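Quick look at the format.
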Amino acid sequence: MLKSACLVIVLQALFLVQAETPAYIKQCRRDDPKLVDCFIGAIEHLKPYLANGIPEIQLPSVEPFKMDTLALQLTEGPQGYKITLKNMEAFGASNFQVKSLKLSDGNEPFKAKIVMPKLKIEAKYTSSGVLLILPASGGGDFHANFEGVSADLTGKTSRPAAKGGKYLHIDALSLVLDVKDVKMSISGAFNNNRILLEATNLFLRDNSQIVLEAMQAQLQKKLASEFGKLANQLLKNVPIEQFYVD
């Protein structure tokens, strides 16, 4: 009788542990000889949840992935052409693949490489200055299509203790972005003045890589900051133990 009661208690405990593991967490065995591959699979398991958001932990959808402002100086001189991008939205961030992952070891940072086939950016923009000898101050809609996007991530973590156990926290994150092909354009600007629209789009078409280089440092910093916030919002809700199954 006592053995039966103990068995029931054990089974109930196991059921509760399993029930407490959220659906968005894919667990890995600690002794898995391919533990890194399992973690890569666990990260990719998150893709549909990142696309839709996880309301129970206040994790917003990354479709679109939102950023605030980028300010670019594209040509030099007192009348140099400047663009400010606001209310930026990136589409396609959830369609990623983890190409490599190196776990942190002691004081060594973790490293990861992720790729996205396409990333589309929509934003509101304002501009000032002279472009191709034409005054080009105005505002409108900015469009960019990135193809062959890869990001090299490097970060440091800690394991602060809190109620319910220890949790992983990303303390610092940096990101290096590489884009194979980029196309940029504007619309709805200059009161739809055809000459100014065509001149600006000609400049963006012929100089998209130069514009990308001008925005890259700021874009990388903002992406790293937003990625870190999203990751920590998830990690603070899942104790480290829940990432493993024995």
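Next, a different chain entirely:
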Amino acid sequence: MYSMELPISVDREHFRALDADKKFKHPKHPHTFFRDIDPLLVWNELELLVDAGLAKSIGLCNFNREQVQHILDNSRIKPANLEIEIHPYLPQSDLVSFCLEHDVAVTAFAPFGSSNHSGEDAAVPLLLEEPILKRIGDKYGKSPAQVVLHWLVQQNISVLPRAEKLSDLREDFEIFDFNLDDGDLLDIAQLGMKNVRYHSLD
């Protein structure tokens, strides 16, 4: 088994290192726990894992454009991927375009929104009940979920759909036998004006 002592440049005290029996406990102030940490410090440590052969690719999650640019400008190894919430109500088109222009792949999580969040707040719309998606789905004999998945893949965005049943998983793969036309794409683009984020980053 391969092992080595990796040099650690991150200020461990700044990370408030905890005893072994406490390290998995929720921090008292999670919203500010890493407020003063430059993500680049963590990124530099991830680069060492690649150097050591312990990781093939490293990436980012929930970074905005400025944060991605900061990593790109100050790293030896650029991010292979950015994972962010993307769906028709939150297309994040500018960020997606920026990443693809810099050869950073984009992965969408929560592509169907979240029924749990909607159940808590009646004002939050259920994405898969969106009339425009249903109409487009009917046009091709597809479900709203399949329309969303194809919409993402058609933009060169990889996607992490949630499948609770085997039938859901099969349906998720049956998205390559149709194409959304320009009218469909314009209709879906209008949904982005709702700007609904189901997973808050506050």
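The two ends are 41 Å apart (CA to CA).

See the schema section for token definitions.
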